Amino acid sequence: MTAVGIGLACTLAFLALYLVCRWSDPRMLRNGVFLTAAILFAGATAVIALPESVVSSYILTLGAALLALIGGIALGVALIVNGLQMLHREGRSLGNLLSLIAGVVVLALPALIVVLFSWAEGFHRGDPLDPAVMALLALLILVASYFGLSFVAFALYAVVYSRMRHRLAPQAIVVLGCGLIGGQVSPLLRSRLDRALALYEAERAAGRRPLLVPSGGKGDDETRAEGAAMAEYLLSQGADPADVAAETASRTTEENLRFSRVVHEEAGRDGQMIVVTSNYHVLRAAVIARRLGLPAQVIGARTANYYVPSAFLREYVAIVVEHRWLNLLVCTPFVAFCAFVAITRSQP
Fold first, then answer.
1. How far apart are CA 179 and CA 324, in angstroms?
2. Do 212 and 194 form a contact (C-beta atoms < 8 A)?
3. What are the φ and ψ backbone dihedral angles of 215, each rounded to 5 degrees?
4. At what angle do helices 308-322 and 131-162 cross, to 10 degrees?
5. Structural domain tally of the chain?
6. Which residues make beta-bridge pairs with 67?
7. Residue 190 and residue 271: Cα distance in Å, rounded?
8. Which of 33, 102, 172, 346 could form a disulfide with 131 if both were Cys (CB 3.0 to 4.6 A apart)?
9. Mean pLDDT across the stretch 107-134?
10. DSSP string covering 292-332, please?
11. Domain range holding 187?
């Protein structure tokens, strides 16, 4: 089989896996991995299939390298600018620093790889290869590639999932809380509540009466529970008091979902749920809902553009931490391979 045939077969295989798994349950992270793999194999196959008369492999490689360099620099600068914007608008916190940190890493990592490669090659001194430095260089490239690709898969599928239409008649509409400002709903939280209200009104127009469950406990820096402030806002916007039941004890997304399910069941409206959160938070909330075995799909509310890059990075870091043992397992062969290379090359 030719290289084009192999590439096409891999593309179709990963596309089939994506479609089957998405049909089975759209809330799985692996769907993003399959979709990303299908796109990458399709792109590689298209490049391989180009005839030499159209563009030479040398020009194609040079163009790809130049495009990657320009794209990397542009991405790094954009992330740093966004990080500074986040600090100015949202204040100093680790979460708000993520864009700035990521931008510095994107710009510094290629430079560090070049320095290590030059050192290992003895570019200036004519020295033999340094096995330890070469092993470190290989490990750096492998780990950076893994986390880079996994972020692309996460971000790509997060966008795809957030744009899905979930055709179900929910018995409950759960709104996930976030921080209050002066005891009142923030613009970010209001966006979630307005999305929930729009869905609630559409369901009422269709003759159904879903339960609105604003969910959120009292943070250490808040004067009251988020769920109580959210319920007040929903009622002020015309929601029927009989259709609003606040959940006021949760402090994490998982608790939001678990405790809201209890409120839902106690209200006697057991059935499917729609969870409303911000668009950047949709996929992780859906993954948690699936893990808890809840009959729930998640939809997103619009977020200010400047907030999105930092928020996506924060969600990705949370996903990595939640699946830390899996990520450690994946990276272990990288470490073993690089250690093997260092040991074998250092022997006379």
1. 27
2. no
3. -125, 125
4. 110
5. 1
6. none
7. 26
8. 346
9. 66
10. TT--EEEEEE---GGGHHHHHHHHHHHHHHHTHHHHHHHHH
11. 172-306
Question: Which of 139, 182, 158 lies closest to 298 in space, CA to CA?
Answer: 158
Decide the pairing of beta strands 211-215 and 180-181: unpaired
Instruction: Indicate whether this model's pTM tops 0.85.
Output: no
> Torsions phi, psi of 211, nearest 5?
-85, 130
As a whole-number percent, the residues of the chain with pLDDT over 70 amount to 86
Contact 285, 274 (CB under 8 A): no
Give domain status of residue 109, yes or no. Answer: no
Euclidean distance between CA atoms 171 and 295, whole angstroms: 10
Q: 38-81, pLDDT tens digit by residue? A: 999 998 888 777 665 455 556 666 666 677 677 777 777 877 88
Residue 336 falls inside a structural domain: no
Q: Is residue 212 part of a domain?
A: yes
**∠ CA(157), CA(163), CA(164), 5° rounding?**
90
Start-to-end Cα distance in the chain? 41
Collapse the DSSP code of 175 into the 3-class scheme (helix H, G, I; strand E, B; otherwise coil) and give the result: strand
- Token pair 């290989």 in the structure block, residue: 138
Tokens 């030479």 appear where?
56
| 213: in domain | yes
